[in-house]
Structures are given as C-alpha cells and as structure tokens.
Design goal:
Blueprint lengths: L1 H17 L14 E2 H10 L6 H10 L5 E3 L5 E4 L12 E2 L6 E6 H10 L9 E3 L3 H9 L4 E6 L1 H6 L5 E2 L5 E3 L7 E2 L1
This protein binds ligand HQG.
Length: about 180
C-alpha cells in the first residue's frame, strides 16, 4: 500500500507539475485540475486511483506538494512546476538567511553564474538547513549554500513563499551566496 501510494504520488506530481498531456489532462491557467477528471484519466492509463487515495496523498504527503480548492473539486501542486502556470504566489519579506542544497559538481558553475532556476519557475530555498540537506542529498553528497536573503530583499529582489513553505526567488546573484 505504502509503495502504491508513493508511486501514485509521483505520477500525480508528473501530471500536475510537468506533463499533464501524458494523460490528456488540461490544467487551467492557475494550475488547477478537476479531481474526478484527474482520477479518471489516470485510471484510463492503467493506474489504480480512487478519490480516497488522492485524499490520502494530499493529506499525508511529506512535503504537502498538493492542495485542494475549497470545495475539494480541484487539485493543484503547490510549487515545483516546469510548465507555465500562474500560481499567484504571495510576495513576502524573507528572513536574514535562507539555504540551498546542491552538490559539489554544480558549485563551480554556481560560483560563476549564481543560482539559476534551471527547469523550474524559481530557485528553491528553505529557512532551515535540514531541508537544504535533504534537497541536496537527492543528487549525492549535499553541499549547502547560505543565501543572504535579507540583503537581496533590501536590494530589490522579490521573494515568494509557497503554501508548503518553500522560499522562492527568480535568481540568486553570486554576491549573496556564502559557499
Ligand atoms: C542547480 C524537490 C549549475 C541547483 C526538492 C539544483 C526541492 C545550478 C539544480 C525542489 C545553477 C536544479 C527543487 C547554476 C542552480 N549552474 N547548476 N548556475 N543554479 N543549479 O530540481 O533546488 O520533490 O530544479 O543547485 O526537494 O534541487 O520536487 O532544484 O541542484 O524542494 O517536491 O541545478 O524539488 O522537491 O535542480 O529542487 P531542481 P532543487 P519535489
């Protein structure tokens, strides 16, 4: 069951953040999908998805990746999209420092160009180092960068906080990064 949950959660992530077309689903401009349509279209590809399972995924997902609208007829990913959706993220003042977990092999390029958003909409940062360690560990031995976010903000860079507490910004120029 646990394994099935994780597998479906990854599939939902793929569909709601990156490739809705794999199941012939259309998201609206704000990234929302109709819950029943999502279920039906996933099942049409041979998956085994129920409303109960989707509820469990939304409620128990370790990073709160997904959220329902008020009447629970629509679902979307909180962040992490590579497709073009308008999330209307709220702009907020960041704490003094934020963290980014990466790996050694990217450090030289980051020293040169700063942090770039790459395939995603934003550069992802966290307020605690532990999260950054986890993010970096996805790719190998984590290398943690400390970001002088208060200084960036004072210099006019915008920050957004997603509903699941991921700090987002367009880029981090190298002068704000402590290696
Ligand atoms: C690196 C997961 C070379 C950057 C995680 C990262 C997170 C550069 C990679 C969320 C660079 C992009 C985001 C530059 C940045 N040159 N490499 N100039 N600038 N990079 O996956 O932050 O499971 O797009 O360090 O937990 O790793 O999807 O970003 O290593 O929260 O919910 O380029 O994704 O969440 O990789 O991860 P990603 P990320 P989910």
């Amino acid at each position: 069951m646990e394994k099935h949950l994780k597998q479906i959660s990854k599939f939902v992530s793929l569909v709601l953040r990156h490739k809705p077309e794999t199941i012939g689903l259309q998201l609206n401009e704000n990234g929302w999908a109709d819950v029943q349509e999502l279920i039906d279209k996933m099942n049409a590809t041979g998956a085994d998805v129920t409303l109960e399972l989707i509820n469990t995924i939304v409620e128990t997902n370790d990073k709160k990746r997904f959220v329902f609208n008020e009447d629970k007829t629509m679902i979307r990913a909180n962040q992490g999209h590579s497709i073009d959706v308008e999330l209307n993220l709220k702009e907020v003042q960041p704490p003094e420092l934020l963290y980014h977990g990466t790996v050694e092999k990217f450090v030289e390029a980051i020293r040169k160009d700063g942090l770039k958003k790459m395939e995603r909409h934003h550069v992802h940062l966290s307020k605690d180092m532990e999260t950054a360690v986890n993010v970096g560990s996805r790719r190998g031995k984590p290398f943690i960068l400390t970001i002088e976010s208060a200084k960036m903000y004072a210099d006019g860079h915008k920050f957004y906080l997603s509903e699941n507490e991921v700090w987002l910004t367009d880029e981090v120029p190298v002068q704000y990064i402590r290696f």
